[in-house]
Write a structure and sequence with these properties.
Blueprint lengths: L4 H14 L8 E2 H7 L6 H9 L22 E2 L12 H11 L5 E2 L5 E2 L13 H16 L1
Parallel strand pairs: 1-2
Antiparallel strand pairs: 3-4
Helix pairs in contact: 2-3
The protein binds a DNA duplex (13 and 13 nucleotides) through helix 2, helix 3, strand 2 and helix 4.
DNA sequence: ACAATGACCGCGG
DNA sequence: ACCGCGGCCATTG
C-alpha cells in the first residue's frame, strides 16, 4: 500500500486510467502517464501495476487484477516488458485471450504491432485539437 | 537513515 | 540504428 495520500491518489488515477483501455486494445506506460498530466512518470505507472493486488488475494478491492486490465499496458517499443517469473508470458496469454496478436522477434521479445495513436481513443486536449484540425484539412482536399 | 532498484521514456551523441 | 543518461519516486534491503 502507498504510504502517502499523494501516492494513493496517483495509484488510483493510474488504475482508473488503465480501466479505460478498451478490450482487445493495447497502450503504453508512457501514454497513461501523459494522459494523467505526468509525461515524465511512465516508470511510476509500471510500479502501480506491479503492486496491483491479485484478485485471488483481494477479491473485493476496487482495483485488482480482475477490475484493472493490466495486461493491456506494454512499453513504448511495443514490447511486453519482462519481470518476475513468467511475467511476460502470463501477460501474453492474457492478451491472446482477448484476441490480441503477440509475435516474437529474433531476441525472443514478445511484441505487438500497434499504431501509436490508433489503439487508444483518448487524447490530451492539445493532441485532440491537432487531430481534429488535421482531419478537417483532409476533409477539405 | 541511506542506497539501490525497478512492468519506463525521450533525448543526445 | 544503437547506447547512455537523467528524470522519476515508492518500495526494499
Amino acid at each position: 500500500m502507498p504510504r502517502t495520500e499523494e501516492a494513493a491518489a496517483w495509484y488510483s488515477a493510474v488504475y482508473s486510467a488503465v480501466q479505460e483501455v478498451p478490450y482487445g486494445k493495447v497502450t503504453s506506460y508512457g501514454h497513461i502517464a501523459t494522459l494523467l498530466g505526468y509525461p515524465e512518470r511512465p516508470r511510476q505507472v509500471g510500479m502501480c501495476l506491479k503492486y496491483l493486488p491479485r484478485v485471488e488475494e483481494q477479491p473485493d478491492a476496487r482495483y485488482n487484477s480482475a477490475s484493472v486490465p493490466w495486461q493491456r499496458v506494454i512499453n513504448a517499443k511495443g514490447v511486453i516488458s519482462h519481470r518476475g517469473v513468467n511475467g511476460a508470458e502470463r501477460q501474453q496469454a492474457a492478451l491472446e485471450e482477448e484476441g490480441v496478436e503477440v509475435s516474437r522477434d529474433a531476441m525472443g521479445e514478445r511484441w505487438i504491432d500497434f499504431d501509436v495513436y490508433g489503439w487508444f481513443p483518448r487524447y490530451l486536449p492539445s493532441e485532440r485539437a491537432e487531430r481534429e484540425t488535421e482531419e478537417a484539412e483532409d476533409g477539405e482536399e
